[in-house]
From TrEMBL:
Lineage summary: Bacteria, Pseudomonadati, Verrucomicrobiota, Opitutia, Puniceicoccales
GO biological processes: cell redox homeostasis; cellular response to stress; hydrogen peroxide catabolic process; response to oxidative stress
Localization in the cell: Cytoplasm
PROSITE patterns: THIOREDOXIN_2
Similarity section: Belongs to the peroxiredoxin family. AhpC/Prx1 subfamily.
Pfam families noted in UniProt: 1-cysPrx_C, AhpC-TSA
Primary location class: cytoplasm
InterPro entries with a match to the protein in the record: AhpC/TSA, Peroxiredoxin, Peroxiredoxin_AhpC-typ, Peroxiredoxin_C, Thioredoxin-like_sf, Thioredoxin_domain
Protein name stated in the entry: Peroxidase
Domain of life from the UniProt record: Bacteria
GO cellular component: cytosol
Sequence ranges assigned to domain Thioredoxin in this UniProt record: 3-176
Length: 208
């Protein structure tokens, strides 16, 4: 699996559902020079683990917004599936109230560009295009800076839910590095002491 950290995030232009409404053209370009982006992939609408993550991101949306960060979800479902799910009450299996964008990667090109697509395409002995495995997205998450560069990525297998707290921690760490020129040691959290990356600074930090 290719590592995208340090590289430009693959751009896309796709349909999405934003605040309960279908948007015909949604792209990462609108955030260049303006906002950080947390782009996360999930396998399917109308499932079990996925809504726990999607709703958790919504519950913490104000925390991301306070950090000048746009949250974007993406799966290989259609925009109509997203729309139906967002507009269905939670007690009936929906995710009503989710306002941030859910991108429809119907052609599976976005998941493929980020290398989180399960399964694979192949050509059989008769020249027919065939698929091995189910072509949905792993639980990938990508933190993209204001220059459009991926600074952090993590990919979970389908049954393994993510930590929203860790996603916020990584946003804090990236912004601390950018603002202070320091580096963040293991388990660093916002407000904790970081490290001067010089040899003397690291030695001083480790001696405490």
């Amino acid at each position: 699996m290719p590592v995208l950290v340090g590289k430009k995030a693959p751009n896309f232009n796709a349909q999405a559902v934003v605040n309960g409404q279908i948007v015909e053209s949604y792209s990462l370009d609108q955030f260049l020079g303006k906002k950080y982006v947390v782009l996360f992939f999930y396998p399917k609408d109308f499932t079990f683990v996925c809504p726990t993550e999607i709703i958790a991101f919504q519950d913490q949306l104000a925390e991301f917004e306070a950090r000048d960060t746009q949250v974007i979800g993406c799966s290989t479902d259609t925009e109509f599936s997203h729309w139906a799910w967002v507009n269905l009450a939670r007690d009936k299996g929906g995710i009503e109230g989710v306002k941030y964008p859910l991108v429809a990667d119907t052609n599976k090109t976005i998941a493929s560009a980020y290398d989180v697509l399960t399964g694979d395409y192949d050509i059989d002995m008769e020249g027919n295009l065939v698929a091995s495995g189910e072509l949905v997205a792993y639980r990938g998450l990508f933190l993209i800076d204001k220059e459009g560069v991926v600074r952090h990525q993590v990919v979970n297998d389908l049954p393994l839910g993510r930590s929203i707290k860790e996603a916020l921690r990584m946003v804090d760490a990236l912004q601390h590095v950018e603002q202070h020129g320091e580096v963040c040691p293991i388990n660093w959290e916002k407000g904790a002491e970081a490290m001067d990356p010089s040899h003397e600074g690291v030695a001083s930090f480790l001696s405490k």
